[in-house]
Amino acid sequence: MMLGIDFESSTPIYLQLREQIVKGIATKRLAPGDSLPSVRQLASDLGINLHTVNKAYAMLKQEGFITLHRQKGAVINSPDSFKTSDEYLKQLCDDLEPMIFEALLRGINEQEFSIVCSDIFKKIGGEKS
Amino acid sequence: MMLGIDFESSTPIYLQLREQIVKGIATKRLAPGDSLPSVRQLASDLGINLHTVNKAYAMLKQEGFITLHRQKGAVINSPDSFKTSDEYLKQLCDDLEPMIFEALLRGINEQEFSIVCSDIFKKIGGEKS
Q1: Residues of B in contact with A124 (CB under 8 A)
Q2: For residue A119, how many other CB atoms are within 10 A of its CB?
Q3: What are the structural domains, with CATH classification, of chain A?
Q4: Tens digit of pLDDT for each residue in A69-111?
């Protein structure tokens, strides 16, 4: 699976890496037991700092998506390890709230917002199958 | 309106500032014509870098939320200035997509996600009135 960085994006690089790996797991391009590139390798391939890759991997570990083995490196966990939690649900609300505030300001109502979400669910359904 | 920073958050400080100002406009605590604190004042009050405040204000200006006057400083625009645009809708999809990927991974389906969004719309409706 190819990982890429958008250096123009306002999203920090470590969060971009995290998002892509989460997307890889969701679309089954990364399966439980698969190894991610080593920190050194990925930093070198993408031309970014070791510390940035470390930060992404540490976050994914903290969230239960990967395990960091001393020898095998970063390995994708089984789905049981990242079931929903109260902590995650709170984070989801905290992330959605400012987006919904802005949507309302831009004149997008609840129904229109819901259609945007629904379209993304449909698109992802297509990518997964 | 009080602005505050969570130094523990994974969200960059300039984006936290931006989110709070957008929220202030959405909840009408900031009205068109209101002035924001000067860059120097806000940086000093929050104990952050001038450059960080500048970055937040530049982003808000770029998005049409504020105008930067040489004398009056940062002033909230009228709602006509931040109507929805194709660019915004694309950004909204780009922001929602990774969140929806993760929700699916965490075992949250479209209907459950929709309920989370709907609850936030209801909560905001309460804060606005």
Answers
A1: 97, 100-101, 104
A2: 12
A3: 13-81 (1.10.10.10), 86-128 (no CATH)
A4: 988 899 999 988 888 788 899 999 999 999 999 999 999 999 9
Cα separation of B63 and B61, whole Å? 5
Give the 3-state secondary structure of residue A76: strand
Q: How many whole angstroms separate alpha carbon A22 and alpha carbon A103?
A: 25
Mean pLDDT of B89-98: 93
Residue closest to B54 by CA, chosen among B69, B40, B34, B33: B40
Average pLDDT over residues A31-55: 96
* Tokens 């922001």 found at: B95
Residue-wise pLDDT for A64-73, tens only, equals 999 999 888 9
- Report which DSSP code applies to B19: H
d(Cα A2, Cα B123) in Å, to the nearest integer? Answer: 40
pLDDT for residue B124? 86
Show residues of chain A in contact with B26, CB under 8 Å: 101-102, 104-105
How large is the average pLDDT for residues B47-64?
Answer: 95
Q: Is A91 on the interface with B (CB under 8 A)?
A: no
Return all residues near B52 (Cβ < 8 A) that are at least 6 apart: B13, B14, B17, B43
Q: What interface predicted TM-score (ipTM) does this complex get?
A: 0.84
